Amino acid sequence: MDAYVHGYSTREAERLQDQAGAVRELIHYDTGFPAGSLVLEAGCGVGAQTVTIAHKSPGARIVSVDISEESLAAAREAVAREGLTNVTFAQADVYNLSYPDASFDHVFVCYVLEHLSDPARALLSLKRVLKPGGTITVIEGDHGSCYFHPETKDALAAWRALVDAQAALGGDSLIGRRLYPVLAGAGFRDVRVSPRMVYCDASRPLLMDAFVKKTIAAMVEGSRPKALELGTIDPGTFDRGVAELEAIAENPEGAFCYTFFRAVGVK
User: 234-242: long-range contacts at Cβ-Cβ below 8 A with a sequence spacing of 24 or more?
Assistant: First the structure.
């Protein structure tokens, strides 16, 4: 996999778990795979999504792969803590999967394509190991869908710095809006995309804390090294912007909105 803009720190692992918990029902209310099916989860990371799909598909067998051994170790621990027995793990490069053609009934990809310099190539690789008639489920965010109040100059600058940092590493944090053409271009048919909008304000303090403070602000903060290296923002502005994003979670007038996109296609 290509460079990961948020890094591999302990805090980033915690952020991924926080994000998964904060939007689990919104993102995955219709996620599930049939009993007896073999599912490939590509780019499982620290297992934040693995736990969810394993719980929601108890009769399916899930093979979760990632290029990072460190992330795989964390994913194994997460699955073990939940007492799940329907998941196995392997180190693999999504561009060069070693599995034979038509090995899997279904493929699941969540928050992965945005970090790849060549998502089309990755989808072709995943399509190869998918059985004819099998499905691929892809979930991605879109940083261009984000808006918030109060909308301060520094918070907007920090958010833009994240988008620029990810682009500089070859990724595309705006890929959510492109899931239909990307999947259709890879030859998947019957592609269906549905938006999943997260909205929170002071009437939902737990979601504000879990999503805005622990997920969004932490996600932006993780891009700091690359953002400063690019020189598109100075340290003071970046740090103030992150602090102002965090403050939205505790502001009685604060509000935050972000849209994820879930796409399903058939081989």
Answer: 237/154, 237/157, 237/158, 238/154, 238/157, 238/158, 238/161, 240/154, 240/158, 241/152, 241/154, 241/155, 241/156, 241/157, 241/158, 241/159, 241/161, 242/155, 242/158, 242/217
Single pTM value for the model: 0.90
All residues at 6 or more sequence positions from 224 whose CB lies less than 8 Å from its CB, including other chains: 238, 242
The token pair that represents 66 in the structure block: 């990632």
Q: List beta partners, residue 200.
A: 256
Please write the tens of the pLDDT for every residue from 201-220: 999 999 999 999 999 999 99
pLDDT digits (tens, 9 = 90+) for 31-86: 999 999 999 999 999 999 999 999 999 999 999 999 999 999 999 999 999 999 99
The CATH superfamily of 10-266 is: Vaccinia Virus protein VP39 (3.40.50.150)
Domain ranges of the chain: 10-266
Cα–Cα distances (Å) from 74 to 48, 114, 220, in that order, read: 9, 21, 22
Listed residue (23, 19, 3) closest to 11, CA to CA: 19
Sign of the Cα pseudo-torsion (240, 197, 183, 181, in order): negative
